[in-house]
Structures are given as structure tokens and as C-alpha cells.
């Protein structure tokens, strides 16, 4: 351990930012894969769904101009978010009693289970597949609470920057990897099974991260050197001190200025992604297959999220309200196009999707960066955990909204 601490001392910044980048990547990877595979999961015989660029296409629903699945991909979104909401609602009030190592073990195991259940379950056993999607949701949300809370023990410029960029990379690498492998002819279930190496990366990244005791001792040294030792107990014991339930409730109202923009942005973008993407179908585009169009929409979105989440070191926006305004405008643009079809090319859709991803990633990283700056250190861990609930509620509402909207639009398309 002392040998390892020498490396931590010498390369502290590198260990923290790289470990947090990999933790962000591995934590969100299963969540992204489930959403990227949503159209395939809901399609009949999705395990045999192999598509190549030159394949002759037989459309699933020739009578409907939107080529609709029976179920909206919003149903996958709900399975991928509701368990996460449950854990985010209750975890902030008890999770501090559980050691970080034990939390990480739970995250790694449920992450692994999600890939196994979705990839190995028979295609006609949809409930078992949905259970796998739920496992991905639990893993991602519990992991987010765990690793963001742990980040309060490290420099925010290192941990939050690494985490935000890593979660953005999860979207890009996950969606691109899934789209590329299935486009090359690998079936969706095999593609998902291959992703089992991701939980291993998570475990190794946590092991490489300077441990809690080392991080606390470093904080103590920094405070002492700055002659601010009066505040030391507040910082070092922030994860161990008991705060009453009533005190925690009083911390919530000041967080609304971060939570409301997060809620609105995530509602709008996930309503687009899981409610409207599958209805944005261009029969004459250079990408002929409907499923392929859906997959590459996700890649374009995740590329933009990665760029914006990685931009906090260079671009910081304190006025969070600007993000939901533009994101809700995107909803209007896509909805009206679905009914009136005024976009002549799929490339215009790709461009707007890219803009949508920039807004979503930008709101996320700027909101949590502001929390790490403006909230007192002794309240920061709880505040981050609570604020992360806002985006989950927005995503859940998007899922509930997407299903009836999907059904209504598909019924309209049958006329």
C-alpha cells in the first residue's frame, strides 16, 4: 500500500482524472447500450436482426408511413430509468452508512447482470429482457450517486471534469460501437454480450483511484498549508458526520435553481430521443434501413454530448435557463417535421440532433460544476446526490409521455 501511495503522491492528478474518466465511461455504458438497442429489443426476432449496408430491406410495417414498432422505445426508456429514480430518491438518506467499496461491488455486479440478462434471454421472454434493462438503470443511478459523492474528496477540477467527460464518452463509444458492430452484421444480442468487459474496467478504475483515507489526508494537508484548519473537520468528516433528516430537507430548496433546468432539458431531449427518433424515418436516405437510421441518430446525439460534457475547462455557462429554452424548441421542430415532413434531407436531422446533444451535455456539466462551486463543502455530497434526481425525473416523464404520443402518431400514420 505504501508503494501505491508513492505513485498516488507523484501522479495524483493523473490518477484522479483518468480513474474518474473511466468510472464515468463504465458507469453509463450499460444505460447507453440499452437505449441504443431499444429499437432492436422491441422488434420481433431481434436476436436474428443482422443488417448490412447492402442488404435488401423488408420493412416491418409497410402500411404505416412511420414504420412503427408495436411498442414505443419509450417503454425501454422507462425500464432504463424508473429503478434509478427509486434508488436516487432513497439513497441520499442512507447511502453514507455504506462503505464505498461495498457500493462499488453492488454497482459492478448489477452492471454485469444487465448485459447477461439482455443478451442471453430468449427473444420471446421480454419480461426477462426488461429486467436486464432495469438492472442497467439501477447500476447507473447507484453508481452516479456513489462516484459523484466520492468526488467531493478530490479536486472538483479533476474528478468532475473526468467524470463528465467519461460519461459523455460512454454515450459516444457505446452508441457508435453498437451501431458499427450491428451494421457489420453482428446480431444485437452478441453485440451486447461482448460489452461484459465494461464492468471489469469499472472495478479496476476504482482500485486505481486514490483511496478515501489517502484523499482525506491530502485534503487535510492542503487546508493546513492554507492556514484554514478551522474548516478541516467540516471537509474531512463530510461523508461521516450525521446530518438530521430535517436539515437535509432544508438543503433542497436552494438546489431548485439547478434542478429545474436539468429536469426540463432532460425531459425534452429524451422525449425526442425515445419518442421521436424512431418516427424520423427517411425512406430515400443513404442509410436505407430504419433500424440503422435510429442507431446513427443516437451516435450523432452522443457525439455532441461527449463534446459538450468535455468542454467545462474551456467554456462555462452560469445561466442554466438558456438550455431548456432551446431544448424545448427542438421538440417543437421535430414534432412539426414528423407531421409535415418539411426536412428534405436526413442530414438536417443529424445537424439538429447534434445541437440537441450539445444542449443536454452542456446543461449537465455546468449544473454540477456550479453546485461544486456554490454549495458549501459540508452540504456538497448530499446536494449532488439530490440534484441528480432532477434529470432522472425528466427522463421518466419523457418515457411516460413518449408512449401515448408514439401510439397517437402511429395511428395517424395508418390513415
Q: Write the CATH homologous superfamily.
A: MFS general substrate transporter like domains
Distance between the termini: 69 Å
Whole-number total of structural domains: 1
Radius of gyration: 22 Å
CATH-assigned fold name: Growth Hormone, Chain: A
How are helices and strands ordered from N to C?
HHHHHHHHHHHHHHHHHH
Computed structural class: mainly alpha
Mean pLDDT equals 79
Helical stretch count?
18
- Quaternary state of this entry equals single chain
Could you walk me through the main structural features you see in this protein, from its secondary elements to its overall organization?
This protein has helices at residues 2-10, 12-36, 38-42, 74-79, 82-90, 100-120, 126-150, 156-183, 188-194, 197-208, 212-225, 232-236, 245-251, 256-276, 290-309, 322-340, 346-374, 377-413. The chain has a single domain, classed as Growth Hormone, Chain: A. The radius of gyration is 22 Å and the shape is globular. The protein is mostly helical and 415 residues long. The N and C termini lie far apart (69 Å). Helix 14 (256-276) packs parallel to helix 16 and helix 14 runs antiparallel to helix 17 (346-374). Residues 51-62 and 214-240 have low confidence and may be disordered. The protein is built from 18 helices and no strands. 72% of the residues lie in helices and 0% in strands. This is Battenin. It is a multi-pass membrane protein. The chain crosses the membrane at residues 12-34, 76-95, 104-122, 128-148, 160-180, 192-209, 319-340, 346-370, 382-405. Belongs to the battenin family. Pfam families: CLN3.
Amino acid at each position: 500500500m505504501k508503494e501505491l501511495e508513492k505513485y498516488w503522491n507523484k501522479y495524483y492528478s493523473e490518477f484522479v482524472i483518468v480513474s474518474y474518466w473511466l468510472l464515468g465511461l463504465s458507469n453509463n455504458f450499460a444505460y447507453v447500450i440499452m437505449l441504443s438497442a431499444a429499437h432492436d429489443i422491441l422488434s420481433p426476432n431481434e436476436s436474428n436482426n443482422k443488417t448490412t449496408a447492402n442488404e435488401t430491406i423488408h420493412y416491418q410495417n409497410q402500411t404505416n408511413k412511420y414504420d412503427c414498432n408495436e411498442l414505443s422505445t419509450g417503454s425501454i426508456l422507462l425500464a432504463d430509468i424508473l429503478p434509478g429514480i427509486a434508488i436516487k430518491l432513497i439513497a441520499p438518506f442512507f447511502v453514507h452508512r455504506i462503505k464505498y467499496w461495498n457500493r462499488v461491488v453492488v454497482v459492478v455486479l448489477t452492471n454485469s447482470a444487465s448485459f447477461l440478462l439482455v443478451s442471453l434471454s430468449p427473444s420471446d421472454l421480454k419480461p426477462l429482457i426488461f429486467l436486464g434493462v432495469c438492472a442497467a438503470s439501477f447500476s447507473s443511478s447507484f453508481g452516479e450517486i456513489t462516484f459523484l459523492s466520492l468526488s467531493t474528496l478530490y479536486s472538483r477540477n479533476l474528478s468532475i471534469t473526468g467524470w463528465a467527460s467519461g460519461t459523455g464518452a460512454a454515450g459516444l463509444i457505446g452508441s457508435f460501437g453498437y451501431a458499427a458492430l450491428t451494421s457489420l452484421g453482428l446480431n444485437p444480442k452478441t453485440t451486447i454480450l461482448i460489452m461484459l468487459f465494461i464492468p471489469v474496467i469499472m472495478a479496476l478504475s476504482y482500485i486505481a483511484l486514490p483511496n478515501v483515507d489517502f484523499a482525506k489526508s491530502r485534503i487535510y494537508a492542503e487546508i493546513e498549508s492554507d492556514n484554514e484548519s478551522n474548516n478541516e473537520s467540516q471537509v474531512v468528516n463530510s461523508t461521516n458526520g450525521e446530518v438530521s433528516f430535517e436539515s437535509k430537507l432544508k438543503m433542497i430548496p436552494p438546489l431548485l435553481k439547478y434542478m429545474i433546468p436539468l429536469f426540463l432539458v432532460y425531459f425534452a431531449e429524451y422525449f425526442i430521443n425515445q419518442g421521436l427518433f424512431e418516427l424520423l424515418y427517411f425512406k430515400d436516405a443513404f442509410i436505407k434501413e430504419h433500424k440503422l437510421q435510429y442507431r446513427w441518430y443516437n451516435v450523432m446525439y452522443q457525439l455532441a454530448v461527449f463534446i459538450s460534457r468535455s468542454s467545462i475547462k474551456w467554456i462555462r455557462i452560469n445561466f442554466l435557463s438558456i438550455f431548456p429554452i432551446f431544448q424545448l424548441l427542438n421538440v417543437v421542430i421535430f414534432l412539426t417535421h414528423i407531421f409535415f415532413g418539411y426536412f428534405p434531407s436526413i442530414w438536417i436531422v443529424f445537424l439538429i440532433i447534434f445541437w440537441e446533444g450539445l444542449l443536454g451535455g452542456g446543461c449537465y456539466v455546468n449544473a454540477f460544476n456550479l453546485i461544486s462551486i456554490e454549495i458549501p463543502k459540508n452540504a456538497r455530497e448530499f446536494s449532488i446526490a439530490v440534484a441528480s434526481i432532477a434529470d432522472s425525473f425528466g427522463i421518466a416523464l419523457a418515457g411516460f409521455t413518449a408512449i401515448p404520443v408514439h401510439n397517437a402518431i402511429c395511428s395517424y400514420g395508418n390513415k
